[in-house]
Design a protein that fits this description.
This protein is an all-alpha fold. The protein is 69% helix and 0% strand. It has ten helices and no strands. 12% of the residues are buried.
């Protein structure tokens, strides 16, 4: 991980800090070996990780330099909390997700969780304190102007302060207040008159609409002529065909009935003849 040596830690330094036992020893060693590095921030970061069983020098080296880089950018560019959080998250993900060549999996999920808790609960929660502690100190000189200078005018704001002798007398204040009250009452009356006029116009418009509706109701309504029935050509044609078919059937039935009757008559005639012949034969046999 490349960074400015004046604002970063080295791997041998991390290995040396791991051999120390207390937070005060880590802080004093950092103050002697790296005076340009924010001592308190780095001590807090490393102590928290070591306390939560993250003792791998490579992991401590990477995370410490990420924190120092983002912290230095925040001080120089006056970042807000949101920008700092986004930068830390992006840098941490580069060493948490296995997606070469963009990122490598150095931190485990438990490591990421511990680092996120330190970022949110210790660093970002007291972000303004860290900026005030490690930021650039500026001295502001405040000067008080004498009373005589105030009467001549403030050079900073350009406001001319009048002396008390030139202020408005009490009668003038009363007149101004009275004029303001009269103006307010006049505007109030104008608004009331305007509202009354609008209401009157609405009432007149409703009355006019009612009159028009009543006149419309009084007008005689012309009867609408009934629609002439148009003969249904299709139905008429069908009826005509049905009538013709019916007549044909009746004619055929009459012809058939006539032929049947003729046959019946012929049969009856034949039967009568046979009966007569039989009767004649019987009479001849009796005479013999």
């Amino acid at each position: 991980m490349s960074s400015n040596p004046a604002s970063s830690v080295t791997l041998p330094l991390i290995q040396t800090l791991l051999s120390l036992h207390t937070t005060s020893q880590i802080s004093s060693h950092l103050a002697k070996s790296c005076p340009a590095i924010p001592n308190s921030l780095l001590t807090s970061c490393l102590s928290y990780l070591i306390k939560n069983s993250i003792t791998d020098p490579q992991k401590l080296f990477i995370f410490a330099n990420i924190v120092l880089k983002v912290h230095q950018e925040a001080i120089s560019l006056a970042f807000g909390v949101t920008n700092v959080y986004e930068n830390l998250k992006v840098d941490l993900l580069k060493y948490t997700v296995n997606a070469p060549p963009y990122s490598v999996e150095l931190f485990s999920l438990n490591d990421f969780k511990v680092m996120s808790i330190w970022i949110c609960e210790i660093y970002l929660k007291h972000y303004k304190m860290w900026l005030y502690r490690d930021g650039k100190k500026e001295v502001i000189n405040v000067a008080a102007l004498p009373i005589d200078d105030l009467s001549k005018g403030n050079l900073m704001s350009g406001v001319q302060v009048k002396p008390l002798g030139e202020s408005l007398p009490a009668e003038k204040w009363v007149e101004n207040d009275k004029a303001q009250q009269e103006e307010q009452e006049r505007r109030k009356l104008e608004e009331e008159e305007k509202q009354e006029q609008e209401q009157q116009e609405e009432v007149e418009q409703e009355e006019h609409q009612n009159e028009e509706s009543q006149q419309e109701e009084k007008k005689p309504h012309h009867d609408i002529p009934e629609r002439e029935e148009v003969p249904d050509i299709k139905n008429t044609y069908i009826k005509r065909q049905l009538e013709e078919i019916k007549n044909m059937l009746l004619q055929l039935s009459d012809e058939k009935l006539g032929s049947v009757e003729d046959r019946l008559k012929n049969i009856e005639t034949v039967v009568q003849q046979q009966e007569e012949e039989a009767a004649q034969k019987n009479t001849k046999g009796k005479k013999k």
